[in-house]
Structures
1.
Amino acid sequence: MDDRIDEFPNFMAVEKGSSLNTLEAYSRDLRRFAGYLKEEKIPSPEDVFPEHLVAFLGTLKREGLSATSINRNLAAIRGLYRYLLRSGHIPENTLTKVSLAKTWMRLPDTLNLQEMEELLQKPDDTNPSGLRDKAMFELLYATGLRVSELVTLTVNAVNWQVGCLTATGKGRKERIVPIGKTAIAILRRYMEESRPLLLKGKKTDVLFVNRRGGGLTRQALWKTIRKYALLAGIQKKVHPHTFRHSFATHLLEGGADLRAVQVMLGHADISTTQVYTHVTRERLREIHRKYHPRGS
């Protein structure tokens, strides 16, 4: 099983174009599953049957994993077994009938317009790092980029004349996203005033760089956002994806078409985008309760 698990990420990367984050998550999940099989003294992949998989998923539930995490574990295992069947390592796939755990709809964390404005104003654009941070925040909010898409964004990905960028999302799929006047203006300032100072003579195609002239990490971006959220006095848990959630929610609240938002977010399935319609409905209920004479 260990050898097959080592082979599977390569298959996913080459055949499916899976992102590094997906490959790392799947590898962790499959190692956990392999450990469980060893404890149960199940010798090989072809000796695993649906009842074994259901029992494994039950242990994950008892450990407190969410339905989303359990589903990801199941998706990794099912993907592995499809690969094993295709490559001839097992004579049949016995796990096809194990269905996904029910995932309860969870509304994403968003900031309202006032909170977002306060957060965007916090970086000090009179110094190189602050100007970079302000440009990153404005770009995240203007485009709804994923964290991985932002930190790997290159200078050439930005079309300065048209005011849009090319984002490379999950499965290496590219999409064109408008930037907007406010974000493109602060981005130009960053390119002219801040980025050369941060680079200190170094050369890189990466758009956003740290004080050593290298690219930013996801962890660094997370810490930066959290720092400014605390400065802004925002009590909610603010993380990089909060910009993406707020981008989609504010567009829909403003009357944007759901399919247009789907394209800008890079969602393969519109049902993924539809979660934001639940957010806007919650917002409408809140407004009704607060302002209608018989709402409360």
2.
Amino acid sequence: MKRTLQLLVLLTVTALLLIQCNVLWLPPKKYQLKSQVTLQPPVMTLGEYTSTGLINTHPRPYIYIIESKKTKGSVMVFGAEHTFDPGHKQFPVMKESWDTFNPTIAMVEGNLDLILTWFFNPVKASGEGGYTQKMARSKGIKLYSWEAGLDAEMDYVLEKFDPAHIAVFYCLRPYQNKWGQFSKSEQDKKMENLISERTNYKTLKGVINSVEQVDSLWKADFPDLPGWRTYKHPENGWPEGRLKQIAAETNMVRDVNMCRAIIELVSKGERVFISMGSSHAPRIERTLKEMIQ
């Protein structure tokens, strides 16, 4: 028992030292809103984004700056390609944009991974969010996730959709055909882990217990499509149907939370650098331009 305690103390001290030396990066905390402003005009929906053809015409990366004349705060929105390739051409653009803008605070999409920089490249670990984290760490400024969080998303969509589809949606969302290199048994094991993690919430508990149930719901909804393991997701993420509708609603919850966080920080005079997938950036632009004065 004494040796175990000593080992725990040693590991804790080591971890604290690595954090202090900027070698071990903990996932950023979610930004906690102080108020819930009404967004007017509202954020562009995913349906509008795709039906107008904007999805195929806007540049990638999609970058713009909005400044507040009232508070002198500002935001640089960097809509990035989701990639884990450190050699991607967008990262020099991101660095140049960051240096020119000179932010006082940074925000990223998602939760990011715990990163030990001696062994892991931030981009390989967390994509554009990892690169944003790298720049924030180098400057010593605060970094937050702009996400509303799974609980907030689930509370919202549970009012509109049945628990089974919601459970399958959240189990499939991290997948999206990213496991093509794995065998079926390995894919099933990963899905089992997601089922265990992502259905342990309120009325979702026990709704989905097995990979076979995921298979069954997918086949029932999409009888003419390949199974979820091999289906090639379209540019906007999901096949037509209930899962795509849920995706649109969760995206709206996330985008609204992101806009409120940006508006609140800019109102305090902060210079906010925020990275996100490229589809988010044009959909929040109109709202931010009207709300930030």
3.
Amino acid sequence: MTLSIPILHIPSHSPITLSISMIICFSMTFFAFYKRILDIKGALAALALGLIISIFSDIYWLMALVGLLVLTSLVTRVRFNYKRQHGLAEGKIGERGINNVIAVGFIPGFIALFSYHLDNVHPGLAGLLFLVSLSIAAADTFASEVGVLSDRAILITSFKRVAPGTDGGISLLGEMSAVLGAFFVSLIGFVFVTDLYFSGAGHGLAADPVVLVICIAIGWIGCQLDSIMGALFQVSRDLLSNEMVNFLTISICVLLTWVAVGFGLLPV
């Protein structure tokens, strides 16, 4: 039995599965705040996101989100003292706030809310868009957190040397890190969101290696778009915040992926 709330559709969940999802959500919220991965508002926003994904999608999508949280928190701690001393660290001790969570989590949450309808448009579309959004977030975070450690950064729009941490700045180390971030999160998503191991997971998203390649590629491309927008609208004109750039980047790439699937440009 399923429930329908006007436009939104709540799939059926077994009491055990839903209980486990709730435990994971609250446990990860407490862990993220206790370990100062997120501040209190950021942790509560992440809790809301986890609950939305658990209720309107399933526990497998939640596990992909947990994978993103764990990996990005680990990479944030890489040479953190160095980044803090040079003014390149997030927050006081690497914690992120509600604006960061909304910027990265709004689109995945939106996809989860309307996953039923998206999959009616194209089987597996919701799962693919969800993975793409996580891949972009991971690629950007890895590139930012590791790329700032390079002393050879250039502005993506002019190729002029810039200081590490400059919005729109890229480096070989950052580009390699972006690929790794997209790969690791896409791989976690490939395991949980497709039907590779869990029947019915991903709402019919086939465990085709092409899906993994697409998610990694779009994750990396999204990171480049983020850098371009940062160079154009943060460095040059100071029109957008970093969080707004992150949000727009994910939104644009997810929308273009949807269009590409609709026109048969992606073999999904």
4.
Amino acid sequence: MPPASHALRPAARGRGRVLATLGATFSLLLAVFSGVSAAEGDSPRPPVAPGGLVMPSDIEDVEHMCALLTACDKLPLPAGLVPRDFVGCTRALYAELASAAAVSFSLTLRDCGLKASSCTELRSCALRGARPDICAGRGKTGPVDMCDGDGRAITCTNERVTLVRDCPRGGEQCVVSEGRAACALGGCEKDAPAACSPSGTRVLECKKGKLLSLDCGAFGLRCTPSAEGPKCATQAASCNEGTTRCEGSTAVACWHGHEVRIDCGARGLACGAGMGALDAGGGRISSVGACAAVQVPSAGCDPASPPRCDGATLRWCSLGQPRGYLCKSVGLQKCVADDKGARCAP
């Protein structure tokens, strides 16, 4: 059961950005997955398959997600999670989903952003059942955390919901400690540093009588002990951080000491490591995460050219290929271009 008191306390600062590495403290472990609880979602698809295999997303799916993320207001997502212009968002997320970092990609963005077909659907999915007005009058001077009446962990900023973690969905309860709402498995007797659960699916820490939890299994990962503390990683072979290699069209990269395999060929891309021979035909090589694409001279557009609006269609250049995205395909009515870039709009 959630705690009886739902008193508000100031939230810790700086959680709006995705962290690149796991630290030894449990607070960093909780933040690494975009600040989104692994318990969220109606059976979200894990980012990584058994054996550490990542399948990059189609660029059409990423365009769909970014059209909504850059057009919809009042989304319950941390500020700065994604770029605010359509092209910047699409390029950044397309590359991230084709890299080893895809294993920690936000479950909310993966489960809601890739599936919603309107702003209403995206907001509803990301709220996880929380009331849209739960933050009315809260967070006026800075972020505050709370537990709602159904045990969800809520962050309020400027009177709107900016983060929801649905603790009960993962068999957990919401607790507020040191100004931060978190999902916990229950009580514990003695404070202890973070460690892997006996099942190997969670990172656990006993802190001030609460058993804090991070569910690696929801991401298709396992808890792995290391000298820096427990980490969520694949079950593939050990590796040295920063190393990459190619096995045909599959890029093999390292994430938290274990290999991640990115199937670049499944999306018509090449492996991005050791790709000197790819430009033999005079094409220009562009990186897409751990993968690569070859832009042939006759491809037809300059990737550096600014995007433009053609009625309700947003036209831009991706990897030397002209692309057009119809804003009305997700219920948005127009394309707008200003000093923030081009994007769809209601």
